[in-house]
Fold:
Amino acid sequence: MHELGITEAILDIVLRHAGGARVRTVQVTVGEWTGYAGDSIELFWQELARGTAAEGARLEFRFEPATLKCRSCGTVFGANGSDLQCPQCSALGGEPAGGRDCTVDAIEVEGGDAA
Amino acid sequence: MSTRVPVVERVLSANDAVAAEVRAQLDGRGIFCVNLMASPGAGKTSLIERTVEALKGEIAIGMINGDTSAAAFDAERSQRAGAVSVHVNTGGKCHLEAAMVRDALSLLPLDEIRLLLIENVGNLVCPMSWKLGAHVNVLIGSTPEGDDKPYKYPKMYAGVDVVVLNKIDLLPYVGFDCERFLRGVEALNPGLRHFRVSCRTGEGLEEWIAWLKQQIGARR
Structure:
């Protein structure tokens, strides 16, 4: 249930930036290192957003794969389900690279002059 | 009509700000704080009991025990061993959050304690996401869990400062390959400090205790 706390945090950010306007969509990037499941966030979202300006808002997810950066040759490779070995030079492991964060990128609110 | 509002905010930035508050409070009082993470059954509470017993009469210890329910078994065990403990019911959440630690701090005699042990909720996925303000993140692994854990939970092993491998007394029975385990740890976290212990027999614990004392001493 780690998405509960995450969804609470997403809602806090969304409501703060919406400034009271009704929220239509929320764009969220979820890095694979975080281990958050989009459908779990959706589930909590429906509950938590009820009765707020974000009730009924659609969540749009962008998933970013977990990657490691090889310490020997700098190749960036997938960290998931692998033996943690660089496919280029076979060195073991690396620095965690892409997919570490979860961010709220943008929201779309009702009103204003954009279409 | 609708308007796009750019946000670009890390979801956990509010938590991180509270963690920084917690850290400042601990630093102001010279308290050394350890966040203990592990899967259920790896030996978090056993390591705490051993640690409290070893430091009893020498260093006053505060404890925050996180659990997903109101059952305060771990807090009771820590208290019996001689620590002042606050049980935190996370209400089903599988990790502690910085605000829970901040609230628990107000219930501890901070002027007296020099070491604060935080027992996080047992799992190898989400506790790593939430900064708590601790000075070190310690991961307790245990031999019956298998030597593949660094490969299966790379985020956890990449993010910790210390690994304690517990239950080494079971090595002859569980087919745990220490070399494979440490190769995985090293791949993600080169030069990581690690201890091999048995909370049951006491083997290896003196090194862990000596390291802790050194860290505590460096705070004041």
In short: Chain A touches chain B through 43 residues (CB under 8 Å). Chain A has a mean pLDDT of 91. DSSP finds two helices and six strands in chain A. The helical segments of chain A are 2-18, 38-48.
